[in-house]
Write a structure and sequence with these properties.
The chain has 285 residues and is an alpha+beta fold. The chain has helices spanning 10-20, 54-60, 66-83, 89-101, 107-125, 149-167, 170-174, 190-198, 205-212, 216-228, and strands at residues 2-3, 24-29, 34-39, 42-47, 132-136, 179-180, 232-233. Helix 3 packs across helix 4 (89-101), helix 5 (107-125) packs across helix 6 (149-167) and helix 9 (205-212) packs across helix 10 (216-228).
């Protein structure tokens, strides 16, 4: 595994690899972290726990049921074994072919899902600053047609700009636990109703995306529209814990009032005391 610290960030690294038309896997560390897969300098897959991949989207959305997926996977394993190759390249190609052959998903739709997952994975990786990255040899994956790194960076920036314009810092929004408004001010449409069906006050946009089998960015864009419609309740921010104390700064008991004089009190002209003569207690209580 080769360590590289030359590029200033991951987009710069991808641009350099595009210029060199290299095939490799970029392992991105951090939270959530993930891997970026390149073929001849084009990004063909992005895998990260921060966003649902193609398999998760097909299964969670019930576009493909688990039985059909298991049958396609068995066909793919048999094709790999018959090829006599221990690598997983034949497996991924055969898996896609089996899903299409079963008629559970079309070829064009599957290709579109792979490409959409590249953009969504890149967006999820960009929500936090990576702590580092490493280059390794390319590994077999289910591939999209390939996306130019510059196009990927441009689209990621556009998504950040859209979300931040309506909701502020995107990374903070992604970590927000979403709560539904009660009662709902309007009747939600089918898509928004589906989102509300998995909102429980504990799930973040990422959790909602995985629960629905939808892209993270698409879910966050829907949440912004739902917030504008009053369908969501904004999380109340707790009071700051570092508020300056208003207690007396001097340790020990508060100062005692001076003892009353033995003789009669002196007479004062009205208004001559700075506090109006209302009290002599200076304890700050």
């Amino acid at each position: 595994m080769i360590r590289t610290d030359e590029p200033r960030n991951v987009p710069a690294l991808l641009n350099r690899m595009r210029q060199e038309e290299r095939s490799a896997t970029v392992l991105v560390s951090g939270s959530p972290g993930g891997s970026i897969h390149l073929r001849d300098g084009l990004v063909v897959a992005v895998h990260t726990p921060g966003a649902p991949g193609v398999e998760s989207q097909l299964l969670k959305s019930q576009r493909v049921d688990e039985q059909a997926w298991a049958a396609a996977a068995a066909t793919a394993r048999a094709a790999r074994d018959d090829a006599g190759i221990t690598g997983t390249d034949p497996y991924h190609a055969a898996l896609d072919a089996a899903l299409v052959g079963q008629g559970v998903v079309g070829r064009a739709e599957l290709d579109l899902l792979h490409t959409a997952a590249v953009f969504d994975g890149a967006f999820a990786l960009a929500l936090t600053t990576p702590t580092g990255w490493e280059l390794s040899e390319p590994v077999p994956v289910s591939c999209a047609a390939g996306v130019e790194p510059a196009r990927l960076a441009e689209e990621t920036a556009r998504r950040f700009g859209h979300l931040s314009q309506h909701r502020g810092p995107v990374g903070e929004f992604a970590r927000t636990r979403i709560q539904a408004a009660t009662p709902l001010p309007v009747r939600p449409g089918a898509r928004h109703a589906a989102v509300l069906s998995v909102v429980n006050g504990r799930r973040t946009p990422r959790d909602i995306a995985f629960a629905l089998g939808r892209g993270l960015y698409a879910v966050m864009a829907d949440l912004i529209r739902m917030d504008a419609l009053g369908l969501l309740r904004r999380e109340q921010q707790p009071p700051p814990t570092d508020r300056p104390s208003t207690a007396p700064r001097v340790a020990g008991p508060p100062p005692q009032a001076p003892p009353a004089p033995a003789g009669p009190l002196p007479r004062r002209a009205p208004g001559s005391h700075p506090l109006g003569g209302a009290s002599t207690d200076q304890s700050g209580a």
